[in-house]
Amino acid sequence: MANARALLVHPEEGSDRIETALGAAGFDVTRTDTAASAVAKATTGEYDCVVSEYALAGDDGVDLATAIEESDAGVPVVMFTETDEEGVPEAAFENGVDRFLQKNGSASIDKLVSDVSTVCSGVPASEPRRDVSDHEPSASEVTRAVEDAPIGISISDPDLPDYPLVYVNDAWEEHTGYPVEEALGRNPRFLQGPGTDPETVEKIGDAIANEEEATVEIRNYRRDGTPFWNELTVAPIYDEDGDLAHYVGFQNDISDRKEAERLAEERAEKLATERRSLDRVLGRVNGLFSDISRILVENRDPNAIPERVCEVVAGEPGYAGGWIGEVSSATGRLEIRAASGVSVDVGASFDIDETPTEVREAIETEELRSGSIEGAADGPLEPAAVGGRRLLVVPLTYGERRYGLLAIYGSGADVLDRRERRVCESVGKMIANGLHSIETAEMLTTDRVVELVVEIRDSTGPLARIADAVGGEVEHLGTTRLDDDACELYFRADGEDPDLDELAALPLVESMRTVSETNDGVSFGVTVTESPPLTQLADHGSVVAEATATPEGATLTIEAPPEHDVRSILDVFRGEYEGVELRSRVERESRDRTVAEFAAAVDERLTERQRAALKTAELNGYFEWPRPVDGSEIAEQMGITRQTFHQHLRAAERKLVEAYVDPRSSE
């Protein structure tokens, strides 16, 4: 078998001695002095072990061990270091280090070679035999080695009552804090204390009584009262006649190792607890998502969905129940639309100020909020008042459209944690999306519609500023939403030669392009960095049927379902502009499907590039015969290739035809 390969990660200074020792033990040693280089080498699978100093240029040995562990290279790491920083051993063992040794003379080098041999994937180090005759240590050298040994050594005399100590070395004094004069003549049991395990003490006593060797890990106490873990080996020593002469004790302070083991056990228990908690969360997640998804698919009545959702929440293990409510635009009070599993009456109305803090904050911030019974005050809807232990409030929002709040009450202290709150937040968005889809479908299929004419007398609005730059009235033809809240607005300006040069200078305009020109006017597209409020109307279940603008303001014709709250539509504009006025509100019966509604239905099926290709082609007369332009010219206007333009256009045409031939195919 080839010699084992060791990767030594160590500054050049001081590395020669380590390389020599490992080489003499039969290891093929490669040295590098940076963690980055070491990770690259260790992950190649060519090395059986990594030996690293803690202090490295730009990094440390713990970071190196972490990187090797995360790479799944499976290479054991031995840390051989001069550092005595507090916490380094614990951090090393927590992050993948297999052995931790402090440099302490030749004895530590020997221990390093032994440990590297042990961890090196079972590959034994070859130990060459050398002639040691005439090199036997003298009695004084043996005595000095015992006195200077890095482990504590003590000797007890069994011929004296209670086996007192008759010798301790310097390391024993250092470990225990007891000077020689206080230790000699006493049985070593004075190192024991309240945390010492009686069974371990009994094991030592039995070994001494039977003249046997024993190794234990025992909790001892220093002179100042601080505890430490002592790896203690007690062995009998016999004289030349075979009679018991002494008991020798070898002490090794393993407090760092025991602390690392304790941390590892805590970490393992924490991971096990996390796994059990995750399993419970996944169980509830699966139930919530599947059941609520089925409710949203099977029910087209928006009034029935809240009741069914609350029933699902109440049926999930770990949840006491829940309610769905919304703030009335007329009264400003929280009105309960549905409830299940908790003592909350459907139809009940509450002043916002008397509701739990979580409810008030969720209404104000439109963000998820949670709390527990321990921190709750007295009042309606508090967990203690309705039969739960924890409360989670989830806003039901789709864009700018508000569908109320979903409140979930947990029945135990281990539910609705951080991960589960994120899941419930997604459930809230799913419910809002479903309600919005139903609302939009009702608007597009109902025989009744409310037509609103809204006048905005504000010259600072984007439509008015665009009209001012053009120098006259513009008609809004449509909008394509882009990423990052930007959008492209399409307009038509009548007249023989409208001036478009000032458009590009507007701060709100990112780019401008001419779409088509005729003798009667020009159609153009303007990319703005922020979507104007009219693009938010779809989030409120409404559509803009017509829109015109002059330098003084804009006039919009909006269509919405009859039951829709007109105030919420007007608030979209009043939050941005001065002089917003509702000029007329007309409810029509048996109306035909408008072009705007058909466009809204198709728009949901088109991608942004497909919309742009279709709109640009239509505005340039591409669908007329003979065609005044070809695909190459339109592609050049859009900044794409001819092939890409035709791909987008064909996809858009297919979806447009499908929507016309089979309107229900998109439902």
UniProtKB/TrEMBL annotation:
One of its GO terms (biological process) is phosphorelay signal transduction system. Residues 138-211 form the PAS domain. The lineage of its organism: Archaea, Methanobacteriati, Methanobacteriota, Stenosarchaea group, Halobacteria. Residues 5-118 form the Response regulatory domain. Residues 214-266 form the PAC domain. It comes from Halorubrum ruber. InterPro entries: BAT_GAF/HTH-assoc (IPR031803), CheY-like_superfamily (IPR011006), GAF (IPR003018), GAF-like_dom_sf (IPR029016), HTH_bacterioopsin (IPR007050), PAC (IPR001610), PAS (IPR000014), PAS-assoc_C (IPR000700). This is PAS domain-containing protein. Gene3D superfamilies: 3.30.450.40, 3.40.50.2300, PAS domain, Winged helix-like DNA-binding domain superfamily/Winged helix DNA-binding domain. GO terms for molecular function: kinase activity. Keywords: Chromophore, Flavoprotein, FMN, Kinase, Transcription, Transcription regulation, Transferase. It holds the Pfam family BAT. The keyword Transferase applies. It comes from the Archaea. The keyword Transcription regulation applies.
